[in-house]
Specification:
The protein is mostly helical. The protein has a two-stranded antiparallel sheet. Strand 1 and strand 2 form a beta hairpin. The protein is elongated, with a radius of gyration of 24 Å. Helix content is about 70%, strand content about 5%.
Length: about 150
């Protein structure tokens, strides 16, 4: 039981770490410090691999405890009162960290999407592109963009 709770705590800590990285990525993108992204992505990939390993370990331990394929709520219902009171705060912390991770990931994706769109607009303008009828950047230069004012 203690080993299972320890794995849940590690999962929670890893989710917190990934959320922190996502928040830092969002902050760097907001401040146009794109040169930081590679290190954030590498750090995030390492944490995701750790998360996968911990999840596999959690599944093995849950199976050994007779909780195979049960949700955390179902585990709390099935566990005796002492086990449930021991596991409940651990599960709540994991749930809180996973919500933080989801929110951080959504914010990061929105901000990065905005920055990518800005870069597409800048590139399109440099190449003489414009917007199509749907509001997307069109990299095909319209015919009139090749005309220049010249005095003869």
């Amino acid at each position: 039981m203690e080993e299972f709770a320890a794995v849940i705590r590690e999962l929670s800590g890893t989710a917190e770490e990934i959320a922190r990285i996502e928040e830092e990525k969002a902050s760097a993108a907001t401040d146009k410090r794109h040169y930081l992204m590679d290190s954030f992505i590498q750090e995030e990939q390492a944490s995701i691999l750790k998360l996968r390993g911990l999840e596999q370990r959690r599944l093995r331990l849950a199976d050994a405890l007779g909780w195979k394929s049960l949700t955390f709520r179902q585990i709390l219902e099935k566990a005796d009162p002492a086990e449930a009171s021991f596991l409940n705060p651990v599960f709540l912390d994991l749930e809180r960290q996973l919500k933080r991770l989801g929110n951080a990931r959504e914010a990061s994706e929105r901000i990065l999407g905005t920055r990518i769109h800005e870069l597409e607009v800048i590139l399109a303008r440099k190449q003489g592109g414009s917007y199509d009828n749907t509001g997307n950047v069109s990299l095909n230069a319209p015919p009139h963009s090749k005309l220049h004012d010249k005095y003869v």
